[in-house]
Amino acid sequence: MREISLPANPPRRIEDERLITGRGQFVDDVRLPDRPPMLHAAFVRSPYAHADITGINLERAQAQPGVVAALSGADLMEALHPFQIGVPLPGLKAPERRPLAVGRVRYVGDPVAVILAETPETAESAVGLVEIEYAPLPVAVDVEAAMAPDAPLLYDDLGSNIAFETQVGGGDIEAAFARADRRVTLRLVNQRLAPCSLEPRACLFDYQPETGELHAWLSSQAVFSARDALAGMLGLDRAQVRVINADVGGGFGSKTRFVGEEYVAAWLAVAQGRPVKWIETRSENLQAQTQGRGQISYVEAAFQNDGLLLGLKVRIFGDLGAFLSPMTAMVPARMPTLLCGPYRVQAVEGTVAGVLTNKVPTAPYRGAGRPEATYILERTMDRIAAELALDPAEVRRHNLIAPDAFPYHTPTGLTYDSGNYEAVLDRALDLADYHGWREKQRARRAANDTHALGIGVATFIESTGGAFGGTGPGIPQEAATVRLRTDGTLLVQSGVATNGQGHFTTFAQIAAPVFGLPMSSVVVQMGDSDLPAFGIGTFGSRTLQTAGTAVLLAAEALREKTLRVVAERLEVDPADLVIADGKVMVKGVASRAVALGEVARMVEEQPDLIEHEPPNPFNGRSIEGLAAWRDFTPPGVTYASGAYIAVVEVDTETGEAGVVTFVAVDDCGRVLNPYLVEAQVRGGLAQGIGQALYEEAGYDPASGQPLAGTLLDYALPKAAQLPAVVSDSIETPSPLNPLGAKGTGEAGTIGGPPAIVSAVLDALAPLGVTALDMPLTAQKVWSAIAQATSANSRS
Fold first, then answer.
1. Fewer CB atoms near the end CB (10 Å): N or C, the chain?
2. How far apart are CA 421 and CA 296, in angstroms?
3. 268 has a pLDDT exceeding 60
4. CB count, 10 Å around CB of 573?
5. Which is it for the CA torsion 446, 448, 452, 454, positive or negative?
6. Edge-to-edge strand order for the sheet containing 104-105?
7. What does the radius of gyration of the chain's CA atoms come to, in whole angstroms?
8. pLDDT in tens, 713-742
């Protein structure tokens, strides 16, 4: 791990002033005054969840003044080939999927046709003029019912709605169960969630026939992946495609890959030779953007009378939706590998069935498998504690992996790099005044208070720094260039597609101390596939440890180049030089110095003074001047951890549950900037609280109609519903990167839901309520209380 100078007062974010003063530029703000007038796309979407398309009449729409083109899916069959599935699985049955539906629609919102017009208003108006005849078909909405032999088939040629079945596990599961004193079974649901980023999907494409180049402005989490996807779909060389990230209003995993409409808009730009923009509406986003979670799990746990968990048998049914986006199958298929969590589980047997349903596809959403696995484990731990009448925090402590056991190998094949799980739990219990809240709880119960207190605990791991499907032999995950400029400042160029996480601040904070410069002397660029950089995407809590390391390595390499140039000029050994106050000087001889800007100017005038970097292998651009390019691929995945404690109050007369206080202690390795860590934890917690108490992307079981068409129907938590959060960190640096860093971007969505659900069930335990599925709405909680009360009175 490198020694990096960390300021006593960590810097606040440097990228926000432009945004909060209204000077941001999102895709919809982009104007191209020197190009032909822009066209606007709008999509005609299916009102049915499952139907054959028996006729399409585009004539009225085409005749509308201002409409340039009206096209159906059949019209684009030759131009746009089917999607490529990103993560192959043995035995995977991947149905053919094109950007627009052809012949049959399979979810409400399935795009059937596209309108291209001079204004967005004209395009939207023409959508209503398209006449489509449908022959409705039976729907498969419930994931378990969709597996039945007589269930309506989404794809007749597949013969089943089961797209894949796989098994993940390890250890001697039969021996673990044979040794157990007790067993418990649970049925657990991770409901579907809509990512609901502040900005829906957005894209602008400008094809220049004179050069054959396509320029794209996106709201994306992966500009290089987007570039390659566009080149592949349109038959262009990737050097002909430039992708620029405008400012991005959130992504949360849903903007990592294209779903389909973007390909259509790009092709239209090529076909028309004019810029084409598509801005998704909120209603479209709730209908047609990929959703997250959507899993049902059946759990059988074997454990000892002292609370030690020996083995888990888990059957998982993953709701894939109507087709496979590039990462749809990955989340449920890989989730069982995480089922050991921070515990010494001896054996796991996980079977997964990925099931096609008449809903919008699922895909990675903040956490992507880690929240589902943690929810299974933490609900199991609570059930064990209840069965044995033990304190739930102590049951967890008894199962935690010891700090001297790292690197730790799980039965499911994972290797945890470092951790101190007991210290994290102890810190959380102390900050929460856990035993004090237990005393208050006992007092309320003794007084038969209708405002019941509940305390919930969750301990978890967060796999961070991984790559979806890998990057292939010899291809790095991240690369960056750091350049010394003639004004004495540093220019950091990264392949990251930032979505607001604070990367500009972090990269400046990493590069500045290498040259002894203030952060104000560092300029950071990213989000452009033409930069001398590379990146596989911003996801999986990976950016600091991978892209940040690339920046560090490039800055250190540039420092060595700089010292060699000055050593030659001053005729000294590079080891006798230091960099301070914007100069390179001989140790102890301040008069023998060269300003950093002057060193850059020397190289600019005499390029042969240094050994130059080879051209950027990802776009062929030369890397000139006093600069260094370095790439980095970590040798493995890092594992962050956390312990969260929620205190809730439940009104037993109305069922209303609210979080009174929340304590979050995370170990994300070395912490470079506590402000950014805290912001990530709090943002994730807002979404975790949303899943636990409010949010669900529900569908009518008979028709497949989504039950949330607007944000009036989809209940995102408001600021007043988010509690005060006490947060802290424990640091166990990772040995897998020189920064010692791990990720923490998804921790709140991982530890938040189980802690809150545990707390609500803890509050309701005296009433006989033992199980509830998220979201724990007031109606759901009140109904459970009423049923338990009725059952108690009968007994």
1. C
2. 28
3. yes
4. 10
5. positive
6. 104-105, 51-57, 131-136
7. 28
8. 999 999 999 999 999 999 999 999 999 999
